[in-house]
Specification:
With 342 residues, this protein is of the alpha/beta class. The chain has two domains: 177 residues, Rossmann fold (3-Layer(aba) Sandwich); 159 residues, N-(1-d-carboxylethyl)-l-norvaline Dehydrogenase, domain 2, CATH 1.10.1040. 42% of the residues lie in helices and 18% in strands. Strands 5-2-1-6-7-8-11-12 form an eight-stranded mixed β-sheet, with helices on both faces.
Length: 342
């Protein structure tokens, strides 16, 4: 199978390396030629950690998404939601596109490409670029809930995706998959409630020392708003509560994932607020939750509060640039109307 991987960093490197080591013909498009000069020079990625070990040889490395996607059977886009529109504009119609994850990006992407677009609830890997042409993984997904726009194409899309990710598990539609992405409930509290150490300590691991009992209680309450939105929309597929991850239950990355991260974290790093943890996970995650709450008449006080806090810290209103029903042209629809559009 010919697979194009379109990305900009950690996730794209892990995706391309893993699939190449598992025998797929992979063309990789990366945005930053200077940062990844060694990958461009060698055409290789050194993968380490839980997703596997080895030197992956790629069919091609380019900075042109259209070039990478030519003749592909599948186009994987492990890239922040903030860059989805730009990338979709540069992709050819034809092959199945899957956003890893999507944050409901499958809906505008599918309408733009006039072809089915899938999205997963999470990135298949927890990974960090190690410099040169190396990437290290701390987690690999055991479950990949996946929705498709339009939902009528779910069976065909999942068949293609399962050839590279047997862990794919179909859900009702693209919005159901988007509401399984709990990164907003995870990262907004971790960053904003750890603002002091982030700004003063330099390298700091929010996933280890930043994950305190108080922060976890806020995460659980915020995640409960996500689950309530799913109930209001009539989704019956598993909710995958974030608390299952912290309880070491079977979650996206399998049982024991939280304890594994505590031992093998790759996230000790300097963090700024202009990071996808806020710009994407709040702007394209919590902004969507907040707009759904308004549409469905369901209170989302913590989502609203964290959107306000993140907007204040960043100095701009994330509602104006983020992903909401209003900006997607879906304002005024009730639960049945939204489901019918998908």
């Amino acid at each position: 199978m010919k697979v194009a991987v379109i990305g900009g960093g950690h996730g794209a490197l892990a995706t391309a390396a893993d699939l190449a080591l598992r025998g797929r013909q992979v063309r990789l498009s990366l945005r930053n030629r200077e940062r990844f000069a060694e990958v461009f020079r060698t055409g290789e990625i050194v993968l380490s950690g839980v997703a596997g070990e080895g030197v992956a040889r790629l069919a091609e490395v380019t900075d042109d998404p259209r070039d990478a996607a030519r003749d592909a059977d599948l186009v994987l886009v492990p890239m922040p939601a903030t860059a989805q529109a730009e990338i979709i504009e540069r992709l050819p119609a034809g092959p199945l596109v899957c956003l890893l994850p999507g944050n409901f990006g499958a809906y505008p992407a599918g309408r733009r490409l006039a072809t089915p677009v899938a999205e997963t609830a999470t990135l298949p890997y927890g990974a960090r670029f190690q410099g040169g042409n190396s990437v290290r993984t701390a987690m690999r997904a055991h479950h990949l809930p996946t929705g498709v726009y339009p939902a009528a194409e779910t069976e065909n899309a999942v068949r293609v995706l399962a050839a590279v990710y047997p862990e794919v598990e179909p859900v009702e539609d693209a919005l159901s998959a988007a509401l399984l992405n709990s990164n907003g409930a995870l990262h907004a509290p971790l960053v904003l409630m750890n603002a002091g150490p982030i700004e003063t300590l330099g390298a700091y691991d929010i996933h280890v020392e930043g994950t305190t009992p108080g922060v976890r209680r806020v995460m659980a309450a915020l995640d409960a708003e996500r689950i309530a939105l799913r109930r209001a929309l009539g989704y019956t597929s598993a909710d995958w509560p974030l608390s299952d991850y912290y309880d070491d239950a079977d979650w996206f990355y399998g049982p024991g994932a939280f304890s594994t991260v505590q031992r093998k974290s790759v996230w000790r790093e300097p963090l700024g607020f202009e990071h996808r943890y806020l710009v994407e996970d709040v702007g394209f995650g919590l902004v969507l939750w907040s707009s759904l709450g308004r549409a469905l008449g369901l209170p989302t006080p913590l989502s609203d509060a964290f959107v306000d806090l993140a907007s204040t810290v960043l100095g701009r209103d994330l509602r104006e640039s983020g992903r909401s029903l209003e900006r997607l042209g879906l304002a005024g629809l009730d639960a049945a109307g939204l489901r019918a559009r998908l």
